[in-house]
Specification:
The protein is α/β, with parallel strands linked by helices. It has 14 helices and 13 strands.
Length: 379
C-alpha cells in the first residue's frame, strides 16, 4: 500500500498532467436516455474534457457510469448547477449542454441554467442547432462576464465550405463506416470503441466524427454533418476524411454514421456513403427497439432490409452487426448475435458488453491484409 505522502504526489502529478478542460455536463431528466446521448457519450469517453459531474435531478446521488449500466466512472450525478459547483474546489472551465433533443432547441428551464452558468463565469459548450452566440441575451451576458460560448454545430462561413471534388479516390487506406437502423442507436460509441480496439491491436486507425458529441469528445477530424448546407455536406465530409488520411496516414479510417439510410427524416447516411465511399460498413442495430426513437409511429427496419439498402446505395458491403443492448439481457444479446450470424452470414457483437477482440476480428476477417499490421505490432 502506498504511503499517504507518495499517493499525494502521484495524485497531484496526475492532475497536473491532465490538460483537459474541467466540465460539468447538463442533462436534466435525460441522462441514460436517448435525448441524453451527448452526456452519455462524454461519460464513456472524452479526450477533451475532464468531467466533474452530470446534472440530472432524477438520478442525483448515483455514479454516472453505474447509471449507464457500466463500471463506476467516478463522476457523480447531482441535482442542479448549485450542487455541481458546491462539489468542486475551483470553478469548472465549461458547462456542456449534454442534451440532444429532436428540435435542437433549449427549453426555458435549460436556458435558465445556461444563463446561470454564464453569470457564474463559466464558459458554455453547446451542440444545439440553436446557436448561443446568436442569442442577444446570452451573448450579452457572456460578454459581460468574459466567458466563451462554443457552438459546436456552427459550420464554417459559406465562402469557405468545400464542394465534393472526388479527392476521396486518392485516400489509399481502408475506410469503414459505422451506420445503423435508427438515430441515437450507438453508432458513435461503436465507432469510438472500434477505433480504440484497432489501435490497441497495432492497426493504425483514426476516426472521423460526423456529429456534435464526437467533436466534443475530442475527434481530431470531422464535421457536424447535419448543420452543413446540403450542397456542401458531401464535400465537407470528403475533406475531413482526406485531412485524416493526409495527417495520419493510417491503415484504417472509421467514419461515424448519422441517422439511418432508411430513416424517413434523416439524410446524413447518404452523405456518409457518398463522401467517404467506404469499402465496408458495420451496422448498428437495437433488436429490442420496435419503433424509431423519434418517430414512434414508424416501425424499425429489419437488419436484412437495411443491409440490402446500404449495399445497393453505397456500392459497399456490410461486414458485421453491432448490437445495441437496450432493454436486453446479456443472455438475449448472445442468443441474438448467434442468430444474426446464422441468418445474415456475418459476425455480430455488442461493442460495450463483448470483448474488443470481436470488433478487431470482424475487420481483419474482411480485410486479411490488416493481420500483417497486427502481427508486426506484436513482434
Amino acid at each position: 500500500m502506498l504511503p499517504d505522502s507518495l499517493r499525494t504526489i502521484i495524485d497531484t502529478a496526475t492532475q497536473l498532467a491532465d490538460t483537459r478542460q474541467s466540465a460539468v455536463v447538463y442533462c436534466e431528466g435525460n441522462f441514460n436516455r436517448i435525448d441524453g446521448k451527448t452526456a452519455n457519450g462524454l461519460v464513456r469517453s472524452s479526450e477533451k474534457y475532464r468531467l466533474l459531474s452530470v446534472i440530472d435531478s432524477t438520478l442525483a446521488g448515483e455514479d454516472a457510469g453505474i447509471a449507464l449500466g457500466e463500471a463506476a466512472a467516478g463522476i457523480p450525478i447531482v441535482a442542479d448547477l448549485a450542487a455541481a459547483l458546491a462539489g468542486t474546489e475551483a470553478l469548472p472551465d465549461v458547462l456542456i449542454f449534454g442534451l440532444a433533443p429532436l428540435s435542437g432547441l433549449m427549453s426555458e428551464a435549460d436556458r435558465a441554467v445556461v444563463l446561470a452558468a454564464v453569470a457564474a463565469g463559466i464558459s458554455v459548450v453547446s451542440g444545439l442547432h440553436e446557436f448561443l452566440a446568436d442569442d442577444p441575451e446570452i451573448s450579452a451576458a457572456a460578454l459581460a462576464t468574459g466567458v466563451t460560448l462554443h457552438d459546436i454545430r456552427r459550420p464554417r462561413p459559406t465562402k469557405h465550405l468545400r464542394m465534393f471534388d472526388g479527392a476521396i479516390g486518392d485516400v489509399d487506406c481502408i475506410r469503414i463506416a459505422v451506420l445503423g437502423t435508427d438515430g441515437a442507436i450507438g453508432k458513435r460509441t461503436t465507432s469510438t470503441l472500434l477505433t480504440q480496439a484497432l489501435n490497441d491491436a497495432g492497426i493504425r486507425t483514426v476516426m472521423v466524427g460526423t456529429g456534435q458529441t464526437g467533436l466534443m469528445q475530442g475527434a481530431a477530424y470531422g464535421v457536424a454533418l447535419d448543420a452543413i448546407p446540403a450542397q456542401f455536406g458531401v464535400g465537407e465530409l470528403e475533406g475531413a476524411v482526406l485531412a485524416a488520411y493526409e495527417g495520419e496516414r493510417p491503415d484504417v479510417i472509421v467514419i461515424e454514421g448519422q441517422g439511418a439510410l432508411s430513416h424517413p427524416a434523416y439524410l446524413s447516411s447518404t452523405v456518409v456513403l457518398r463522401a467517404s465511399r467506404p469499402q465496408a460498413v458495420i451496422m448498428q442495430h437495437a433488436p429490442a427497439r420496435r419503433m424509431l426513437s423519434d418517430y414512434p409511429e414508424v416501425r424499425m427496419p429489419s437488419p436484412l432490409s437495411e443491409i440490402k439498402l446500404i449495399e445497393l446505395f453505397g456500392k459497399t458491403r456490410v461486414i458485421g452487426v453491432a448490437i445495441n443492448h437496450e432493454d436486453m439481457t446479456r443472455a438475449e444479446v448472445l442468443a441474438t448475435a448467434a442468430r444474426y450470424e446464422s441468418e445474415l452470414g456475418i459476425p455480430a457483437t455488442d461493442a460495450l458488453w463483448h470483448e474488443p477482440a470481436e470488433l478487431v476480428a470482424m475487420v481483419t476477417t474482411a480485410f486479411p491484409e490488416l493481420k500483417e499490421c497486427k502481427q508486426l505490432a506484436m513482434a
